[in-house]
Write a structure and sequence with these properties.
This protein is of the alpha/beta class. It has a domain at 3-179 and 213-239: NAD(P)-binding Rossmann-like Domain (Rossmann fold), CATH 3.40.50. Helices cover 43% and strands 16% of the residues. It is built from 11 helices and 13 strands. The strands form 4 sheets. The chain has a 7-stranded parallel beta sheet with strand order 3-2-1-4-5-6-11, sandwiched between helices. Strands 7-10 form a two-stranded parallel sheet. Helix 5 (147-166) links the parallel strand 5 and strand 6. The longest helix is centred in the N-terminal third of the chain and has 21 residues, at 92-112. The radius of gyration is 19 Å and the shape is globular. The chain binds nicotinamide-adenine-dinucleotide and thymidine-5'-diphospho-beta-D-xylose.
Length: 332
């Protein structure tokens, strides 16, 4: 049995990973989470107290981070400011958490010689043309577009430097767009589902031709556990499940799964600097480490996600009005 420290474990993907660890291993988990607007303790409800400990705190708090590293065997780092639209509005928290926070963890990993896995995004590679046959690989040059993705790119480069210069035992994964239960209503899929549940028309940025490569959060968690157990130190692994879809197709699918007309949505102001297409080639992870995604059918995964939001309004309703008021100020 190992002791894992999971940063950002009250967020969408971090909480999914904590559930995954409890269900599939005998590890003990300590969650370190600041509970920003994006963190929610209810996402960890029902987990056994003898397996999961919750610590509210900031990853930039070096004394607290030191104390938690000292008693962990390995650390999985999810904590981040994660929303592109927020980063366009106020980049500062992205620099603090994504850059200084990751730096703080790296210094602790170095001091206590702890294994660290850093969670990152495919957005560090910038975007692809719609008709480009290429997909991102581990050797694609970094070319981030937004304040969010540039701070994630910066955090990845810090990890690589701490591996090379100080021998920190770290790995990195860059994953494509996640969907599933417990995702904040600011994000594309939950925003549209909860709009329909409230009788509001979904909002599509610009033309809606932008492509995202969707993966279920459960598959992201199984991939991270695989890398933690079998990944080679210093390596980067791309995580993706061959789920390319344009945004228009996703909105139309949500509407039809929810019994609405497929064209009952609005085109709204486009995102500044909106990346056109992301696409992941995850061959390295599959071939070297034997990982296979379980969710092969996006439509049934999306239908189950819609059912979850329908059944869990108390989880998402408190955030909904504030999110929509923010988007309204931007014509979105
Ligand atoms: P999220 O916004 O849902 O959760 C982030 C969590 O981090 C929250 O619980 C928040 O309270 C916590 N946090 C924020 N700042 C903190 C700080 N300074 N100290 C401690 N905790 C802090 O994000 P998510 O969608 O779950 O993303 C998690 C990670 O996965 C991020 O690193 C993100 O870049 C990466 N990622 C996300 C996606 C996606 O589709 N959502 C895809 C690829 C990679
Ligand atoms: O209301 C909307 N309408 C819309 O058309 C919203 C909120 C989004 N969009 C578009 C923008 C994107 O093309 O949908 C797509 C997905 O948007 P987001 O959910 O904001 O995700 P994205 O910007 O692609 O980034 C996500 O995937 C990579 C996560 O938020 C990041 O944390 C992760 O790194």
């Amino acid at each position: 049995m190992s002791k894992l420290l999971v940063t950002g474990g009250a967020g969408f993907i971090g909480s999914n990973f904590v559930h995954h660890i409890v269900d599939h291993t005998d590890h003990h988990v300590t969650v370190l989470d600041k509970l920003t607007y994006a963190g929610n303790r209810a996402s960890l409800a029902g987990l056994p107290d003898d397996r999961v400990e919750f610590v509210r705190g900031d990853i930039t708090d070096a004394p607290l981070v030191d104390e938690l590293f000292a008693r962990a065997d390995a650390v999985v780092h999810y904590a981040a400011e994660s929303h592109n639209d927020n980063s366009l509005n106020d980049p500062r928290p992205f620099l603090d958490t994504n850059i200084i926070g990751t730096y703080t963890l790296l210094e602790a990993a170095r001091k206590y010689d702890r294994r660290l896995h850093h969670i990152s995004t495919d957005e560090v590679y910038g975007d692809l043309e719609l008709d480009d046959p290429a997909r991102f690989t581990e050797s694609t040059p970094y070319n981030p577009s937004s304040p969010y993705s540039s701070t994630k790119a910066g955090s990845d480069l810090l990890v690589r430097a701490w591996v090379r210069s100080f021998g920190v035992r770290a790995t990195i994964s860059n994953c494509s767009n996640n969907y599933g239960p417990y995702q904040h209503v600011e994000k594309f899929i939950p925003r549209q589902i909860t709009n329909v549940l409230r009788g509001v028309r979904p909002k599509l940025y610009g033309s809606g031709e932008n492509v995202r490569d969707w993966i279920h959060a459960d598959d992201h968690s199984s991939a991270v556990l695989t890398i933690l157990e079998k990944g080679r130190i210093g390596e980067t692994y791309l995580i993706g499940a061959d789920g390319e879809k344009d945004n228009k197709t996703v909105v139309e699918l949500i509407l039809s799964l929810m019994g609405q007309d497929r064209d009952a949505y609005d085109h709204v102001t486009d995102r500044a600097g909106h990346d056109l297409r992301y696409a992941i080639d995850s061959s390295k992870l599959r071939d070297e480490l034997g990982w296979v995604p379980q969710f092969q059918d996006f439509t049934s995964g999306l239908a189950a996600t819609i059912d979850w939001y329908r059944a869990n309004e108390p989880w998402w309703a408190p955030a909904k009005d504030g999110v929509e008021a923010f988007y309204a100020t931007k014509g979105q």
